[in-house]
Each structure stands twice: as C-alpha cells, then as structure tokens.
Design a protein that fits this description.
The protein is built from two helices and five strands; from the N terminus they run ααβββββ. It is about 25% helix and about 40% strand. It has about 60 residues and is α+β, with helices and mostly antiparallel strands. A three-stranded antiparallel β-sheet has the order 3-4-5. A two-stranded antiparallel ribbon has the order 1-2.
C-alpha cells in the first residue's frame, strides 16, 4: 500500500515518462504494460511486461 501512495505522489507526466522508459533485455528501452507497483527494498518497483515482446521487466522508481 505504501508503494502505491509513493507512486501516486509522483506527478502524472513523470509517471508516464517512467512507464515508457523501462529496459528490456531483448528489446532495449521500452514501455512497461500490465504492471503492478510493489514495495522494493529501497524504493517502489514496477513489475510487468515489455510492450513489444511480453517478457517480464521491472523498473525501480528512484
């Protein structure tokens, strides 16, 4: 729940930029889709799929 609060505290335009700037080991920089927001050890983490190839990707929200 805390991770979701932190995520929503980020301005919408910045959240959109973060979602569209995720690294996929197959495609390079891509967009994350079907993601969830989880509490990481140091910061919230988006975990989901690459928009292009559907492989699992993640992004730490730093």
């Amino acid at each position: 729940m805390e991770a979701a609060k932190k995520w929503l505290s980020i301005p919408k335009d910045i959240r959109e930029m973060l979602v569209k700037n995720v690294f996929c080991s197959h495609c390079g920089v891509t967009e994350i889709v079907k993601y969830t927001i989880q509490e990481g050890e140091y910061a919230p983490v988006l975990k989901g799929e690459c928009k292009s190839c559907s492989r699992k990707v993640a992004r730490v929200i730093d």
